[in-house]
Amino acid sequence: MRDERTFRAAGNAINARLVELGLTQDEVAHRSHVSTSTIRKLLKGRPGGYQPFKLAQLSRALGWPPDGIARLLDGARPEELPTTAVPPADARLLAGVSPHLAGKIAQLSPADLLYLEDLVDRFLRQQPA
What we know:
The protein is mostly helical.
């Protein structure tokens, strides 16, 4: 059951995950397309009617399964959540990449993958349209 205790515990788990990944609230907001105000409310453990798809986007940005934050709000412990290095959807993106590079990417931690994604985004923004 979702109550103030589970919201506080989820907020603590999300904050710990941000620290573990070396991400700021702004960075995870950018990656997840979830507003910083929503992220702040979650981090403070404020109960609310959070949209399930926003929780799923935030979960993915933190390297958790899409239902990760919902599971935390339902009382799961953070160590019970699996983390993924390369989500299955991203495997299709690697289809044209050399096996050597794909193997290296597969070894990256979730934090390293987020950093790599940020570098690619920056590179693409510098390219002429």
